Amino acid sequence: MKRRKFLKNSGLGAAGLMSVPLVKGCANESESKKEQKDSPPVRPIVIATWDVPNATAKAWEVLEKGGSALDAVEQGVRMEEADISNQSVGKGGRPDREGNVTLDACIMDQLGNCGSVVYLQNIAHPVSVARKVMEETPHVMLAGKGAEKFAVDNGFNRENLLTEKSRKEWEDWKKTSKYQPVINIENHDTIGMLAIDAQGNLSGACTTSGMAYKMAGRVGDSPIIGAGLFVDNEIGGATATGMGEEVVRTVGSFLIVELMRQGKSPQEACEEGVRRIIEKNKGKLDFQIGFIAVNKNGETGGYCIQPGFTYRTYSSEGHQNTPSASHIPS
Ligand code: GLY
User: Fold this and answer.
1) Residues 119, 102: contact at Cβ < 8 Å?
2) Ligand 1 centroid vs 191 CA: distance in angstroms?
3) From the CB of 181, is ligand 1 less than 6 Å away?
4) Which of 116, 119, 187 to mutate to test the pocket of ligand 1 (most atoms within 8 A of CB)?
5) Which atom of ligand 1 is nearest to the CA of 228?
6) Per the domain annotation, does 76 fall within a domain?
7) Residue 147: inside a domain, yes or no?
8) Sign for the pseudo-dihedral over CA of 120, 245, 236, 258
9) From CA 139, how far away is CA 133, in angstroms rounded?
10) What is the per-residue pLDDT across 111-157, written as a single tens digit (0 to 9) for each?
11) Structural domain range at position 47
12) Which residue, 240, 195, 228, is CA-closest to 57?
């Protein structure tokens, strides 16, 4: 652990990272002291769907240097977008049924600013294009050819995202063309990441190549603010993985943040988010959904339908992969 270095770099020093209160600009010293007493401590943390140690370590490295939660989540998920062995995100992602790799991603900051790209092709880092949409345009979402042109105009390189491994698997799939994504493998899809920085600000990012062998043009939950990702700096954040259609139907991530607003812990809120989806699909749970959440105090939670989902956290308490509790027991 590089806790000492982090304390130094983040300017938190001897006061201790875990005990530094959130201070929001108080009118006078006594108000400030009262707010310090009443406020929960800042607890910098990164949490991501699935076991993605390189992604969470990268995000923590950004936070450790005093960087923002927004930079942390962008840099973190870029690690998976660049990793061609991860066939559910970025370059190397499994294609749609016509052999095209099409990417969805979004990003959201502590001010509620957000950007997203859907059905983006030939660009390896959709999360960074989403951030550009957020920061450089008056819009929230760009799609398809328009998103690709915007990316190229902003300096992103076009490249072939279909690797030989994913192409061969797709050729094999075409022999039967059965659309039955393998749970936790072909729909082990989305890398969603949430972070809190030393200032107590929250941001999130979400990126995917979507369901393997989806219909051409299909877009899931991951680039849809409120469905695949939602962040409210006053409350917390949530993000989703799994069968996007079901997450969209319940606006899952927004729901989880609202449940935390009403007083539920991140764990309770994730469980309720999954329960709503189960309720809508009585008797037919042949798909996976996993949610993770973090609240403003840095408490985390995760819950899923099928066993097998895990999530990674990185904080001053360590770097760990946690098997998520599931509705269907393992
Ligand atoms: N959760 C990602 C997708 O359904 O596309």
Assistant:
1) yes
2) 10
3) no
4) 187
5) 1
6) yes
7) yes
8) positive
9) 7
10) 999 999 999 999 999 999 999 999 999 999 999 999 999 999 999 99
11) 41-326
12) 195
> Could you identify the residue written with the tokens 């997450």?
247
**Ligand 1 centroid, distance to 183 Cα (angstroms):** 12
Provide the annotated active-site residues. 190
Distance 207 CA to ligand 1 centre (A): 9
Q: What is the 3-state secondary structure (H, E, C) of 61-91?
A: HHHHCCCCHHHHHHHHHHHHHHCCCCCCCCC
Say if 19 falls within a structural domain: no
Residue 6 in domain: no
Ligand 1 close to Cβ of residue 103 (< 6 A): no
Domains identified in the chain, total number? 1
pLDDT tens-digit map of 235-257: 999 999 999 999 999 999 999 99
Structure tokens at 80: 């998976």
Which pTM value belongs to this model? 0.88
User: What tokens does 15 get?
Assistant: 């006061």
> HSE of 276 in the Cβ direction (CA atoms, 13 Å)?
19
For ligand 1, atom 5, which residue shows the shortest CA distance? Answer: 210
At 64-105, the pLDDT tens digits run 999 999 999 999 999 999 999 999 999 999 999 999 999 999
Mean pLDDT for 200-213 is 96
Q: How confident is the model at residue 215 (pLDDT cuts 50, 70, 90)?
A: very high
CATH number at residue 120: 3.60.20.30
Task: Kindly state if the Cβ of 253 falls inside 6 Å of ligand 1.
Answer: no
Identify which of 89, 243, 251, 306 to mutate to test ligand 1's pocket (most ligand atoms within 8 A of the CB): 243
